Amino acid sequence: MTIPDLPEPAFSNLESMLSRKFGKEIANYFSGSPLNRVSFLRTDHSFLSAALKHSTTSFLVFNNLNPLAKDPSNLEYLSYADVRPLIGEDPYSKSEEQLVSEYNSTVTVPQLLFLGLDERNKQGLTFNIYTGSPFFAVDVTPQGTIQSQAEPLLQSLQSRGLRFLEGRIQAALPAQDAAIYAQARALLDWNARNPFCAQCGQPTMSINGGMKRTCPPKDMASLAGSVGGTVGATPTERPDCATRKGISNVCFPRTDPTVIMAVVSFDGKKVLIGRQKRWPPHWYSTLAGFVEPAESVEEAVRREVWEESGVKLGRVVIHSTQPWPYPANLMIGAVAQCIPGGEEIILKHDPELEDARWAEMEEIREALRVGTSGLGEPAQEGYREGNLRLPAGTAIANQLLAAVANGFNGEGSKI
Fold it and tell me: How far, rounded to the nearest angstrom, does the alpha carbon of residue 166 sit from its chain's CA centroid?
């Protein structure tokens, strides 16, 4: 598989006090979206209605979280005319308040997300002071009461030679498409995982352009089941729920902070790497783990490294971050250094790793040159079987290892 280029960091050519002191910004794969999310317009149904039908609007559709594409490197965007048989003439024709008051838990509503405006297109939709091509995402998975509309759409797309990219991770897309895909996939997955209220257990509905879920106070259907109940003549008052009280006390998309770190020895000559048992032979990466409640990023780095490897850390510096939409992680990349005498590897604490070891900088540099790829995929030309394998450039682990092996420790290097 060809590894795509990474996104261009924001204002990469701009010299500033911060860039001189800390170095240029690092952008990782799945970041760098070209879209302005204009999040403050998500509640404005006059805007969403206009955006939905504009001639420059693009729809990225998913079937079971798999995106529509021509091939693994090229997404296929649809038009409003393509998706109208599924989503209807205008799902934003009524206000959000009215839609909530008419909620019917037996009716499957196609999950529709407003992603943002591509402001590079000056011929796009103009709304107030904002101009750009609108982007939406739609879940076209045949399910519930929309199955009869979704299945003909899938057949039509298949007849056009299009397909939905299967597989857990899509890492062959151009950087900007990858960022749009990541936003859409993470939000569709979150909506699908939260059909019921965490407070009272009743069915929820999507609002705010797909960015929030609310627990409606009434239901036009019997609550015998969330799908297939009998429609009542008048709305059924639902039991009281704490989420309907207070300010904006609704369900928001979750993002799980995760630390991932390149750990260097106290003398700066070696890097700590580890592997899981399920990985192919010779494959290693940096260590990683979830940030726990009431824990700083620096504390999480030190805790995770000690728990997984027994190594004890001192200074921790944040390097860069990466959205990871599987399902909703924010990878917080860090570089950390051992304390004197803290380099002994002990795998007796957390059994997550099969092995952890120290690698010389030259071994890391050679693996970065010819030993990287997606998990289980062949390495580049020049790789010698049995040598170290590392993640591809689309993974933040690759960027962290490159930072410490290719000059981070050198004179004048900066983070």
Answer: 16
Q: What is the pLDDT of residues 307-319, one digit of tens each?
A: 999 999 999 999 9
Burial of 385 (0-12, 13-18, 19+ CB in 10 A): exposed
What pTM value is reported for the model? 0.93
Q: Strand, helix or coil at 40?
A: helix
Q: Show the tokens assigned to 303.
A: 């805790």
Q: In which element (H, E) is residue 19 found?
A: helix 17-22
Beta carbons of 276 and 353 less than 8 angstroms apart = yes
Q: Parallel, antiparallel, or unpaired for β 125-127 and 112-118? A: unpaired
Q: Which residues contact 297 (CB under 8 A, 6 or more apart)?
A: 257, 259, 291, 316, 318, 332, 334
What Å distances lie between residue 352 and 271, 274, 348, 403, CA to CA? 19, 10, 10, 25
Amino acid identity of residue 375, one-letter, is L
DSSP SS3 for 51: helix
pLDDT digits (tens, 9 = 90+) for 292-343: 999 999 999 999 999 999 999 999 999 999 999 999 999 999 999 999 999 9
Beta pairing partners, 349: none
Strands (DSSP E) contained in 354-412 are 355-360, 372-373, 390-391
The interaxial angle of helices 147-159 and 80-87, nearest 10 deg, is 160
Angle at 52 between CA 50 and CA 58, to 5 degrees: 130
- Let me know: does 271 contact 285? Beta carbons within 8 Å: no
Task: Say how far apart CA 356 and CA 347 lie, in whole Å.
Answer: 8
DSSP state string for 165-215: --SS----S-HHHHHHHHHHHHHHHHHHH-SB-TTT--B-EEEGGGTEEE-
Question: Which amino acid is it at 268?
Answer: G
Helices then strands (H, E): number in the chain? 9, 20
The string of pLDDT tens digits covering residues 17-64 is: 998 888 889 999 999 999 999 999 999 999 999 999 999 999 999 999
What stretches in the chain show pLDDT beneath 70? 1, 222-233, 247-248, 408-415
Look up residue 298 and give its amino acid.
Answer: E
Question: What is the rounded distance in angstroms from the CA atom of residue 141 to the CA atom of residue 275?
Answer: 36
Give CA angle at 161 (2, 51), nearest 5°: 90
